[in-house]
Amino acid sequence: MTKIHNLSQLQTVLDKEFSWRLKEIANLKGAIRQQSSLSEKTLVRAGVTLLYAHWEGFVKSAALAYLDFVNSQGHRYDELTDCFVALGIRKRLGELVDAKKSALHIAAIDFIRTAMSGRAELRAKSAIATDSNLNSAVFENIAATIGLNIAAYELRFNLIDESLLARRNRIAHGEYLDLDVGGWRNLADEVVSLLRQVKNDIENSATLSKFLRTSTVAGPHQASASGI
Question: Are residues 59 and 90 located together in one domain of the fold?
């Protein structure tokens, strides 16, 4: 991924990640509409798997893009909110838990004390792990990692866990899927809405500098995206 140094570059990356996924879902909708009843069932099964792939892929790509953006701003640890500080010193935090020697504890504490005034270096790639199982709990952890408010997503946790992930898992295990074309289209619309919400929340966080302990006050950024 190209390094993301400013808000415009972040928005461009998010727009591209969102738009090609939106187009592919729209294309599949059109393909299903033109098929026979038997072919519809096959495409619906394939379509559920595709929807999950876009859910997992977009969340991971968008979160990494945002972390890259925050990392490139050159802020000190003591300027960032706690979730980003934790990303930078998580190795040392692990040493505090795992080490049994006092010398290692002392060294870790010394690092944490002195690091606060140093330039933040966020370990982005290791921070965003979906494990091919992006359920609501994993998503909640990713949201916490990048400082997104999870409250707006809680009403959709059942959608993520049951309507999307559980169905995808049943298909992966060769089980029968009881979902008609109308149900799949509704699921597709819900997934697109989820992706758009993640995109908008990340863009708003970047625009308002919510990664800083004292963020700037500005109007919310409204990302443009065409519906399907």
Answer: no
